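Many introductory courses stop at the sequence. We go one step further.
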Amino acid sequence: MIIQGVTIEGVDCSFLFNFTDGKNISSVKLGYVNKPGEATYCYSGQGLKMGYLHCINGDIRWVNNNAGCYPNMGILKNFTVEDYEVFQVTKK
């Protein structure tokens, strides 16, 4: 769905994960979306947003303005991202 330059994917099975200790995969925290209508979307000139977790002007700096779209998983409010991936899983 596209609304005024905003592409919205409302998916009720979307999730985020956070490794609280990057050297220990057992430290993963997983959170499924609370507001599917705000699961993932893109604003023109800003890039990907996942709930209110978004990059600033397409840069490597990210901001987490958790507004209840996903549960609080200990993701920092401001941080730098080296790389991220988004996957879409479809049933055949």
